[in-house]
Amino acid sequence: MSPQVSNMSPSRFSMLALLLLSPYCWAEEVNLSVSEIIEEANKNIVRRAGEPIVIEGDIAIDSEAERNADPCTSRGCMWGKYTDGKVYIPYYIANHFSSREKSIITRGLESFSSFSCIRFRPSRSTDRDWLSIESKDGCWSFVGRRGGKQVVSLARSGCLYHHTVQHELLHALGFNHEQTRSDRDNHIRVLLQNVVSGMEHNFRKIATLNQGTPYDYGSVMQYFRTAFSKNGQPTMVPIPNANVNLGNAREMSANDKKRLNTLYKC
After folding, report:
1. How far is CA 211 from CA 114, 203, 244, 254, 262, in A?
2. Mean pLDDT of all residues in the chain?
């Protein structure tokens, strides 16, 4: 595999390296996109026994057979709605997080209640399905409800940022990355010649539903333009205007919120 070259400025790279080496990182203190953070945090992930395969940067799957699976929301992976119209999703935050780290995670969980019918609540012994938020290797999540205990990994050494928490929770709610949308070729040009050898699968298209929303360069699910680059050159270029900002979201966009509300009929 060819070495991956970053095109970050020395100051941005030094800032990110310092944060990743520290057991504490504060969401408000860096000016990095969610995909830059995830790519750096996940670049040296070593899969351990019993842990899932991670594809497309941060999406967890149980086996290779799932790589080309259809969008799970058409197969019933959405979280259920209660009679009061709310979608209650139980969660547990592992005790290895500090109180400060837990507050970053909790802020991300609670942010959904301000614009949607999604309500994350602490898990109970009677819950059959719940999210277990843990610090494992890197930042990753399964897509949609899997059943039973479902791990969302937010590593203490690189993933504890508000937009990163939102990104992984959107995966758990059933959403894929923006650049894998079924209509992406109308909006971005993928330059596979600049992609690290063996990482081309990160740009496969999925038969996404898109919820009637336009392609969103500012989505929290959109990766930055040099994601998985082997030479510092862009792997994605917006079309027709190549100068459009791409993958710089600091929080969920209006379209992220709209498609979530549409999917769950909030």
Report:
1. 20, 20, 23, 13, 6
2. 82
Which are the contacts of 208, defined by CB distance < 8 A and separation ≥ 6? Answer: 71, 176, 180, 181, 182
Q: Which residues contact 192 (CB under 8 A, 6 or more apart)?
A: 200, 203, 235
The whole model's pTM is what? 0.80
- Is there a contact between 159 and 153 (Cβ–Cβ < 8 Å)? yes
Strands (E), the chain: 53-55, 59-61, 87-93, 118-122, 130-134, 139-141, 149-154, 188-190, 236-238
Answer left, alpha or beta for residue 126, where phi above 0 means left and psi between -120 and 50 means alpha. alpha
C-alpha–C-alpha distance, residues 44 and 58, integer Å:
12
Which residues does the annotation mark as catalytic?
168
